[in-house]
Amino acid sequence: MLTTFQYDIPAIIRGYSQGYFLMADDEGDNLGWYSSRQRTIVPLDSRFRYPKSLRRAINQNRFRVAVDQAFLEVVSGCADRETTWLSDELKEIYWELHQAGWAHSFETWQDNELAGGILGLTIGGAFIGESMFYRISEGSKVAMVKLVEHLRERRFVLFDAQMMNPHLERFGAQVLSEGEYKDLLKLALKRKSSFVDNSL
User: Euclidean distance between the first and final Cα of the chain, in Å?
Assistant: First the structure.
């Protein structure tokens, strides 16, 4: 479902709080609000899993994690593909949301090189994942595992991944009905969770 887009930060936060998300068409010409009868979430409990092949990369501490050290670079990395819904206008919106404290990047680094990252919005106890990318093998996968740990530590209720794909399925992602999702979202919005602190 597509609805008329209003471009101001309070309206954007209201839209996400009601279960909508922003997307542009493949040409980047039309930006609008979308919702879905099904919504994919990444579980924050014991249902979360990850491929055994990742354990070595994690145990070897090949990557360090950081929050918001390269926000614009993560946005650009997420948009750097043949077909993307992440238009130039949407990049500007994410930057404004970031400056206002709503949008964040969760990053993995190898030495001084950005290895991968996840772009998302935080509202209360909800992390709404928008996109992810990698430049170094396993960079985004390790980011996913470390992000779930990060959200658990900060008592987040919801990790919204929006739409299912094979990558998310390997991490135990689940598909909820629209009603189930909105019930979980309402619960998450009541939680006062902090995504950013000085521990990273």
Answer: 38
In a domain, 135, yes or no: yes
Task: Compute how many other C-beta atoms are within 10 angstroms of the C-beta atom of residue 118.
Answer: 25
Query: How does pLDDT run along the chain (200 residues), one tens digit per residue?
Result: 444 455 689 999 999 999 999 988 766 567 888 888 999 999 999 999 998 889 888 988 899 999 999 999 999 999 988 777 888 889 999 999 999 999 999 999 999 999 999 999 999 999 999 999 999 999 999 999 999 999 999 999 999 999 999 889 999 999 999 999 999 999 999 999 999 974 44
What is the extent of the structural domain holding 166?
A: 38-189
Q: Is residue 195 part of a domain?
A: no
In b/e form, how buried is each residue of 88-111, taking b as 16+ CB within 10 angstroms? ebbbebbeebbeeebbbbbbbbbe
Instruction: Name the phi and psi angles at 192, rounded to 5.
Output: -100, 90
The number of distinct structural domains making up the chain is: 1
pTM (predicted TM-score): 0.92
In a domain, 9, yes or no: no
Asked if the structure places residue 66 within a domain, the reply is: yes
CA 185 to chain centre: 15
